Every structure is written in C-alpha cells, then in structure tokens.
C-alpha cells in the first residue's frame, strides 16, 4: 500500500524562502500532519486546506518550527470546528509540550486546564509500533538532536524513515536498511557548516551510494538551489509537491 506525502514546508528553522519542515502523510482516507510549526497554518492555507482536513497531528520534538502552530490548531478546532484534534506524541514529551510550550496561550480556567482539554491525546512509546490508521503504522525512534532534550525520528510501515531533526547517525540508517527493510529515507540536511545539532550534507554524502539513492532531503536552508546537482545520489523534497511513497 503506497502513501501520499506533501511537505507543507521543507525549510530549516529560520528559513524565509520555505515554510517550516512539516509534512502531510496520507493513506487515502486518513491524513496525518507530522509536526505543526509556526508557519504551518499559513502553509496549509496556501495549499487550500484547513486544519479540519486533518485527522491527526504528531509531534517529533519541541522546537518552534515543529510545535509553534499548535495553539492556532487547538483554538481553531475547538471554536471553529467544534472537535479535538487527535495528537500523537511520545510520553516523554507530553508534559513538556503542555507545561512549557502550550499552557500559557491555551489555558483558560474552567475550559482548558490540561493538554487533554485541547487535544485527543494518544501517547506513544519509543520502539513500539502503533497503528495510526488502516494503512499507517508508525514507530518512534529516539534520536540525538539537542543534548538533554528528547527528540524522535519516525519509522513508518516498516519501510519509510522520517528523520525529523537529528544529528548524523549512520549506524541507525545502516541497521534500518540492512535489518528492517527500509527503502525510503526522508532526511533533514544542513547544507553547510559543522553539524552540531543537525546532519550535514557532507556526512550524508559519506553514506554508500545505494543508501544515498533512498534519501530525499528536507529541512534545508534558503540557499538550497545552490546545492542542486551537488547532493550525490540524493535529491531534494520540494515544498508543496505531491509524492507517492
Ligand atoms: N544548540 C543549538 C540549538 C538550536 N540551534 C538552532 O535553533 C534551531 C531550532 O530549530 P531546529 O530546526 O532544531 O534548528 C536549530 C538551530 O538552527 C542551534 O543552532 N544550536
Ligand atoms: Zn527543526
Ligand atoms: Zn529541532
């Protein structure tokens, strides 16, 4: 069964040419939003969509380009569409998301006093596959992004790896390809500079060519066009384009 992917944005955190790196993943009857950053509401609008077109949202980690649009999502769902959005999130992130990201704006005495008042919360455990819909099964994989902060990549339907934000982990990619049947890798890329909290292009270019051929690059800076043709066997995901995975 194939899935449909449409990147709301493919930009790095502070990109201005591209929206935040947030993704729509669909199976024909279910649409998941992977991360909901500051620009997600506008990006959706420019695609002619609304939050009401979504069935669920999943959060990979707590950075503004991945959660900054959740307040608008929650308020729109509550006051415009009169329903709660299903929220998939790692158990380790749920309290952080409420106490340190959403509580200030979303809380309303007597109406919204916890995450569950704003979302239909489904917590996930890393390493335990969870069936999100008839055709989407997804597993959280803990990754290394910011020291001391929880962050997760996704492994979807036993074949698609979605990096979210992470530093280079060639051992993980090798294991997924060799032992778990991975054939598609959607991977963030920092095009230049040392990889302190992200994966650099030069690190990804060190991977074997067969693995590179599985990689589509995302979460990139505004100067991406200058790197077209310089990414080995890897190609860039384009914002707003429709892909079948
Ligand atoms: N130690 C850190 C922490 C953060 N950052 C920058 O802040 C951004 C937050 O969103 P991101 O997409 O994870 O990218 C991070 C870095 O640009 C960084 O460069 N170094
Ligand atoms: Zn990011
Ligand atoms: Zn991040």
TrEMBL record:
Reactions the enzyme catalyzes: 3',5'-cyclic UMP + H2O = UMP + H(+); 3',5'-cyclic CMP + H2O = CMP + H(+)
Source domain of life: Bacteria
Pfam families: Anti-Pycsar_Apyc1
Limits of the Metallo-beta-lactamase domain: 19-219
InterPro entries: Metallo-B-lactamas, RibonucZ/Hydroxyglut_hydro
Residues annotated as signal peptide: none
Described function: Counteracts the endogenous Pycsar antiviral defense system. Phosphodiesterase that enables metal-dependent hydrolysis of host cyclic nucleotide Pycsar defense signals such as cCMP and cUMP.
Protein name per Swiss-Prot or TrEMBL: Ribonuclease BN (tRNA processing enzyme)
Organism: Paenibacillus favisporus
């Amino acid at each position: 069964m194939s899935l449909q992917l449409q990147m709301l944005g493919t930009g790095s955190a502070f990109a201005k040419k591209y929206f935040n790196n947030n993704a729509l993943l669909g199976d024909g009857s279910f649409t998941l939003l992977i991360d909901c950053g500051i620009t997600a509401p506008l990006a959706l609008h420019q695609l002619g969509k609304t939050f009401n077109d979504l069935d669920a949202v999943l959060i990979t980690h707590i950075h503004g380009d991945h959660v900054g649009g959740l307040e608008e999502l929650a308020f729109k769902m509550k006051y415009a569409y009169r329903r709660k959005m299903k929220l998939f999130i790692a158990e380790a992130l749920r309290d952080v998301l409420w106490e340190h990201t959403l509580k200030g704006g979303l809380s309303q005495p007597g109406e919204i006093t916890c995450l569950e008042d704003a979302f239909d919360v489904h917590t996930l455990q890393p390493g335990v596959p969870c069936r999100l819909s008839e055709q989407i099964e997804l597993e959280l994989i803990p990754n290394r992004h910011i020291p001391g902060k929880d962050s997760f990549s996704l492994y979807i339907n036993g074949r698609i790896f979605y990096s979210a934000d992470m530093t280079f982990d060639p051992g993980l990619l090798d294991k997924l390809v060799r032992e778990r049947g991975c054939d598609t890798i959607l991977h963030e890329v920092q095009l230049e500079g040392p990889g302190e909290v992200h994966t650099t292009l030069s690190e990804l270019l060190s991977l074997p060519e067969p693995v590179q051929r599985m990689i589509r690059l995302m979460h990139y800076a505004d100067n991406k066009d200058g790197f077209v043709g310089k990414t080995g066997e890897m190609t860039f995901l384009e914002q707003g384009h429709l892909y079948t995975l």
